[in-house]
Amino acid sequence: MTRLGLVTVVVRDYDEAIAFYRDVLGFELLEDTRIDGEKRWVVVAPPGARETAVLLARAVTDEQEARVGDQTGGRVGWFLNTDMFEHDYERMRAAGVVFEEAPRREPYGTVAVFRDLYGNRWDLIQLRRPDR
pTM score > 0.85 for this model? Predict the structure, then answer.
């Protein structure tokens, strides 16, 4: 079996990134292991996620630092799926998440774009069930 295990988000600081993903987005901290010196292996994921998780990788070069917050050239780069859109949207707004727009309905589901603490664009999305 092959599956997508991790995707990387380049961050400025491990601890501030953990605080955002855990305390604001509600992700679980799955691993925080010191590798050597100041390098850490930090993995977060939405509660109950069984497939893909996010590796928080601290920028260590000027080139990496330049990409913090704009890893996809301004495009939405990550899609946070939910089965409870309204609940998660309101919980995230109350926690300080900045949404770029009000929720909208599309043929594929309900979606609203938000930014993480560095400015990377994400979709909060509840996919439409095929039976609807």
Answer: yes
